[in-house]
Amino acid sequence: MSGWDRVRASRSRSSQNSAETTRTTSRTVTLGRVQPQAPGHRTIYCNDREANQPLRFKGNSIATTKYNLLTFLPKGLFEQFRRVANCYFLMISILSTTPMSPVNPVTNVVPLSLVLLVSLIKEAWEDWKRFQNDMTINNTPIDVLQDQRWEPIPWKKLQVGDIIRVKQDGFFPADLLFLASTNADGVCYIETANLDGETNLKIRKALERTWDYLTPEKASEFKGEVQCEQPNNSLYTFTGNLIVQKQTLPINPNQLLLRGCSLRNTEYIIGAVIFAGHETKVMMNSMNIPSKRSTLERKLDKLILTLFGTLSVMCLIGAIGSAVIIDRKHFYLGLHDMRKTVEDDQFNPDNRFLVALLNLFTLITLFSPIIPISLYVSIETIKFFQSTQYINKDLRMYHVESNTPALARTSNLNEELGQVEYIFSDKTGTLTRNLMEFFKCSIGGESYGTGITEIEREVAHQIGTKIREVEKPANFIKEKGFNFDDPRLLLGAWRNEPNPDICKEFFRCLAICHTVLPEGEESPEKIRYQAASPDEAALVTAAKNFGFFFYRRTPTMIYVRESHVEKMGNIEDVSYEILNVLEFNSTRKRQSVVCRYPDGRLVLYCKGADTVVYERLADGNEDINKVTREHLEQFGSSGLRTLCLAYRDLSPDMYEKWNEKFIQAKSSLRDRELKLDEVGELIEKDLILIGCTAIEDKLQEGVPACIQTLSRAGIKIWVLTGDKMETAINIAYACNLINNEMKKFIISSETDAIREVEDRGDQVEIARFIREEVKKELQKCLDDVQQMHSVSGPKLALVIDGKCLMYALDPSLRVMLLNLSMNCSSVVCCRVSPLQKAQVTSLVKKGAKKITLSIGDGANDVSMIQAAHIGVGISGQEGMQAVMASDFAIAQFRFLTDLLLVHGRWSYLRICKVVLYFFYKNLTFTLTQFWFTFQCGFSGQRYYDDWFQSLYNVIFTSMPVIMLGLFDKDVSASLSKKYPELYKEGMKNVFFTWRVVAIWAFFSVYQSLVLYHFVAISSSSAQNSSGKIFGIWDVSTMAFTCVVVTVNLRLLMMCNTITKYHYITVGGSILAWFIFVFLYSGIMTTHDRQENVYFVIYVLMSTIYFYFTILLVPVVALLGDFIYQGVQRWFFPYNYQIVQEIHSDEPRDMREMLELEIGNQLTPEEARSLAIAQLPREISKHTGFAFDSPGYESFFAAQLGIYAPQKAWDVARRASMRSKPRLGKKN
Q1: Are 1159 and 1180 in contact (CB under 8 A)?
Q2: Beta strand 548-553 pairing with 528-530
Q3: Tens of pLDDT, residues 440-455
Q4: pLDDT tens-digit profile of 268-319?
Q5: What contacts 1027, CB < 8 A, 6 or more positions away?
Q6: Which of 78, 160, 299 has the alpha carbon at shortest distance from 911?
Q7: Which helix (H) or strand (E) element contains residue 810?
Q8: How far, in Å, CA of 1044 to CA of 958, rounded?
Q9: Most buried in the list 88, 191, 865, 953, measured by CB within 10 Å?
């Protein structure tokens, strides 16, 4: 006997005792432990806190914070030191505290501490905001039943088993068992927007046994026992039983109200807490999105390791050199008087190995700036601003109709957007609008509907043919969800058709077989339908327009107002009793209802995918079935979404027997969904086909142009859809994904050979045969590809269906599929499951090692979005689950052009330059110290003052590089889209290769040699005003000044766009150095660190040598870069440099200023200013520069109907202009 069975048995034996005794007996406690429950299940005692206390259920308080007071410091520091660079700087800081360190430990510890402090403050601030949000939620009041009255308590004090009351528009504080409602028949309406983003209302129904527990007096009498599954994250499943007075009642998701949902259109409901706090389904779903790192960031790690290797080599050279050179003959070093200290051991000629070892550690601290401490902080800052200020506020990616801007949910992958090579896209809601309209249908083998779809128009345009369209009558009224035109069915004309009875069945199936909720007044004009999907709403709307108006629903009844049934003008309200609902899921691909007519007729109505419904049709009616299949193919070719409708009359005896099995399956605690599917199979057979529906889902605006632009950029686009092959192919044609010039490979399971094997029913044989067929097709396609490679053949496209894809993804065939796919410009996978979408994405991501992007709008796209390098969610009609799982969110597919070709390119280019510049400036600085090591006998003597070295990265060179990362722009946004081929440079990663790094390293070595030797040699004969030669601190301060000036000017040379911010930061950085050195050199303290550089800068600036050096040395140092850049641009230009030259004489596009626009909503005055800013400008003919002339604004504005008043300077300017006489040509 299982644990919960023993509990129930003990409770039944003691039922004659008092309630208190009963509870004590039911809780068998042994040795201080609760009696074990059945594996995978829990038992909850409703309205009895004492009985639940030993079970130790979790409380309802939630905490989404990462830290608490005790864990913040250790956990926060652990997170920071997971970065290799921070560990490196910690090691340097520790070494700098040892006696062998040539630098003051403060100069290493302080910068590291500042970096860690800033990061920890950021973490603390973010966690504090989470804590405040948690406290607000935890302290929200809720009515709980206590002593036969409702008492308000905070959410956090709720316990499992409590009976609570939730009022209209209130949120459910925990996962509740729905007991009673103020609505009739124990129903309530809920909104699940916080769970899945869907705003359509959903209906929930309490068990009839608990409807009476509505008042506090009645509710206090409720003493039920719930046996249910353990907490899990499945939002749409729930299995359990409610035991009330020895009666066992099955519980399903219809009786579960999930935390985070809100109550609508219901005064209040009564519920019992089942799962609380972190055990609620919404909290168990709130896991973090998989952590993603960009490819460039991973390459940055390799670069840092290379720098560390360079550092090691430099230190090893210095250590060996110190061991070789050290000798007692250097009497001035005092080596004859050695003591047993670390300082003396470092220069002890008797132990050269120890000298080398100790000097190795000395040089590590001395050369530590080669790896920049501010690199990660600067890159994070740049990426943060790129996301929040550029991507999020780009008006070109703002969708006015839905008031939806673009959203960068992470800033880690900005530059990855500039390297995407493969895009995996869903179809419905991503390429199309997911705004469904009933367009055509087939009833009893007769096709109805005269319209021409957008897909047909686009395909005809691609092919170059014309389509003759039927003119719509003047009285044609188009309603949302209904765009059907055929006089044979409308206005009751279907009664005159040869098959009016089957038409009636068709319309009733549309009006009855659904889960739609009506809202508003019960009139055809004012009613609103709340549907789980746009398809369902369109079908019910179609039934209404055909004269079968669904206007009211209860949990057991559907009310339909039927007109034109017998004769014109006759209207009748008919109520249909809904006995059973077999719900739709991705496995069943169909939905069925069993209903009872008022005259007692029992009918099963079924609608679903054609592949599923045709398998369950009764023998006979072969003609209608065949004709309908032809209509399905025609509709699919037109890009329409199809569903088959069928019915079956049931006898009362057969239904009663089946219903017993259905109730048993519904009451099962284990594998309930599987058992319900099996029971459904028993009745969903021997169906009679009524017909099929065809719904149009129009293409989103700009999709064909967007795909064409992305294809020109070298991006390969794959469409992964659940639609039929014909529909998918025609959508691909309409989107410019496939054209007639392409060679198409089609691998389909809908062949005569496969059908013949499937008809035999041997599953093992079917699997073997399809696998062999797929292998044969893949090999054939690969052979064709090899032949085409020998000559310049056409582009290739692959179309494969889900059944064949399942076998093609087998490990033995996966490589063949990948090789074939890599050679195709476009791939269309149809009839695929969500899992297959993710598998295909992973295949390319891991197999081809290419940067992938997945884009979708529904919950079925989440796995695909998370599998790719970059996930993009469309905030559309299917809720927000795709957006919540994504890295970037946009409202329309066409915005991918701006996201990738503009922001992606710019981000990639900027981050590459930032990383290379950091590499260059730190290597240059460190190498000057390295060259000095040779001159000082490898003794570890520092060349620069400690604070010079520490502030080099933090102050003197930090801000200009951030401006580079924020504002550098090679070409404008409009040119980026005009020349999408520029994007290919990012794919090939041409700006961050080892060759590029080597070039920067070469010039870094060259500049360091110039900066060190020019200053050192020239200063050897230089004298100050008092006639003394310069010492080490004079020379090093001079060299450091040249380094700061040189590296800041080098940044300006690498900029494509120089703004006022560049001048401010570059000039400000150089000025900051002079201000610092003036103050630092003018302070005298007891410490020798200041003594070294005391008054140095004043002495230097009193000589002509300083000014001559500060002008000459940076020029000579940068001369090599200048020559290289000139030669490279003239003879080996990048693509963007060619575009720059082509458009060098054009005025700056004023529309580019929109990137800095903050508001999404413009006032009328702002809109007018924006319109004027976008007017064409004329280049002034009075200068050699492309300055915009304001003198022609008023003219262009008038041409476009925009009021732009003349400005005073217009008149003055025109008055000063002289018209030159035209000169005739000389003979």
Answers
A1: no
A2: unpaired
A3: 999 998 999 888 887 7
A4: 999 999 999 888 887 876 645 455 677 887 888 888 888 888 989 998 998 8
A5: none
A6: 299
A7: none
A8: 11
A9: 865
In the chain, the amino acid numbered 81 is F
Confidence of residue 878 (pLDDT cuts 50, 70, 90): low
193-202 pLDDT per residue, tens? 666 555 667 7
Q: What pLDDT, in 10s, does the model give residues 517-556?
A: 887 788 888 888 877 677 888 999 999 988 899 998 887 8
Helix (H) or strand (E) run with residue 1152 in it: none
More confident residue, 1140 or 789: 1140
User: CB–CB of 981/1135 below 8 Å?
Assistant: yes
Per-residue H/E/C for 314-367: HHHHHHHHHHHHCCCCCHHHCCCCCCCCHHHHCCCCCCHHHHHHHHHHHHHHHC
Torsion angle of alpha carbons 734, 737, 742, 747, nearest 10°? -100
Token pair 């699919």 in the structure block, residue: 636
What is the SS3 assignment for 764? helix
| From 426, 535, 697, 945, active-site residue | 426
Cα 450 to Cα 468: distance, rounded to the nearest angstrom:
11
3-state per-residue secondary structure call for 214-276: CCHHHHCCCCCEEEEECCCCCCCCCCEEEEECCEEEEECHHHEECCCCEEECCCEEEEEEEEC
Q: For residue 897, give both structure tokens.
A: 């052009």
Tokens of 629: 């299949």
Sign of CA dihedral 682, 686, 689, 690: negative
Alpha-carbon distance 678 to 1120, whole Å?
78
Judged by DSSP in three states, 813 sits in coil
**Given this model, what pLDDT does residue 187 score?**
81
- Residue 543 has which token pair? 């039934």
Quick one: tokens of 296?
């460039």
pLDDT the model gives residue 1218: 39
Rg, C-alpha atoms of the chain = 38
Average confidence (pLDDT) over 462-488? 71
What is the three-class DSSP state of 956?
helix
| DSSP 3-state percent helix, strand, coil across the chain (nearest 5) | 50, 15, 35
Q: Which residues contact 158 (CB under 8 A, 6 or more apart)?
A: 59, 60, 142, 144, 164, 173, 174, 273, 276
753-757, 970-974, 1047-1051, range with the lowest pLDDT: 753-757
Q: Report the alpha-carbon distance of residue 60 to residue 1123 in Å, rounded.
A: 69
Q: Cβ(737)–Cβ(719) under 8 Å? A: yes
Largest CA distance in the chain: 128
* Integer Cα distance of 733 and 519 in angstroms: 39
Residue 1183: how many other CB atoms lie within 10 Å: 9
* Phi, psi at 581, each rounded to 5°: -125, 120
- Respond yes or no: is residue 426 known to be catalytic: yes
State how far the Cα of 803 lies from the Cα of 767, in Å rounded to an integer: 10
pTM of the model: 0.72
Q: What is the DSSP letter of 1028?
A: P
Rounded Cα distance between 244 and 924, Å, is: 81
Mean pLDDT of 137-157: 91
As to burial, measured by CB atoms within 10 angstroms (0-12 exposed, 13-18 middle, 19+ buried), residue 515 is middle
What is the rounded CA–CA span in Å between residue 638 and residue 920? 58
Comparing 27-31, 851-855, 965-969, 1206-1210, which segment has the lowest mean pLDDT? 27-31
| Four-CA torsion 261, 265, 267, 268, nearest 10 degrees | -20
pLDDT at 1089 over 90: no
d(CA 863, CA 426): 12
Among 719, 1152, 709, smallest CA distance to 897 is for 709
Q: At a CB cut-off of 8 Å and minimum separation 6, what does 478 contact? A: none
